[in-house]
């Protein structure tokens, strides 16, 4: 049995199996059991994952979190890119009927699993996300309308602060709006480098994301948000003028209809303002 709590033991195991950590995959094992267990527990609860529910696990590594998920009676769909780790995961969990392994780059493979996914009412995700893909992957889920009931992710603290940021704060960005459009975002805990092997150079953070009540946004909503944040030093008027099909007259009309000052900046707008702007522009296009 692997000792997931010891860097020394894990290092010895990797050497024994002829495996190494690959920096390009952003691999860091979470070796602190006092962090792992609360993260798994946060996935459950009264309105969370229940026994028998399917949980997607991103980056299982050698299976420390996988084992805890299976102990709780969840069925686990694990996404792993490292061929060496895939071999170990098969050896450890292939006999468990609740375990399924998806091999390859999750950015490319997750959409192939959508048809087998039982809707979005009881769908869950847990992941110690590689720093280099965390924001890209979460944005991909959201923009492609694949919304989980609850997610618990470990990400770089800087990314977590952007996810949870509110309008007017220094961390508020298009990614903040993206997350807030479908999730209530709650930071759970700061995780120090010593909780990982190898130790990263920065703090991490566990984050809970719970699905909001269904909201419908115009198709241009996300592209518009990105445009309005494209240059933080510019006003919303100047950024809006770079959006396809927006002339100066249309720009001023849209801002006036939404009661916005042309000199405001995107970093000070609440999500409702972005949604209203998108709806106004879409209605203008449809009325042509």
Describe the structure.
This protein has 288 residues and is α/β, with parallel strands linked by helices. It has twelve helices and nine strands. Strands 4-3-2-5-6-9-7 form a seven-stranded mixed β-sheet. A two-stranded antiparallel sheet has the order 1-8. Helix 8 packs antiparallel against helix 9 (221-228).
Give a concise summary:
The chain has helices at 7-16, 33-43, 64-71, 83-93, 106-109, 134-143, 157-164, 174-180, 221-228, 236-240, 248-257, 271-286; strands spanning 29-30, 54-58, 75-80, 99-103, 124-128, 150-156, 183-191, 196-197, 204-211.
Primary descriptors:
alpha/beta, 288 residues, 9 strands, 7-stranded mixed β-sheet, two-stranded antiparallel sheet
Residue share in helix: 25-40%
Catalogue the unreliable spans: none
User: Could you describe the largest sheet, including whether it forms a barrel?
Assistant: 7 strands, mixed
Give the overall pLDDT as a whole number.
93
End-to-end separation in angstroms reads 67 Å
String of helices and strands = HEHEHEHEHEHEHHEEEHHHH
Strand arrangement, major sheet? 4-3-2-5-6-9-7
What is the number of beta strands?
9
**Could you tell me the radius of gyration in angstroms?**
21 Å
**Helix count, per DSSP?**
12
The share of residues in extended strands comes to 15-25%
Structural class per helix/strand content?
A: alpha/beta
| Oligomeric state of the chains in view | single chain
Shape: elongated
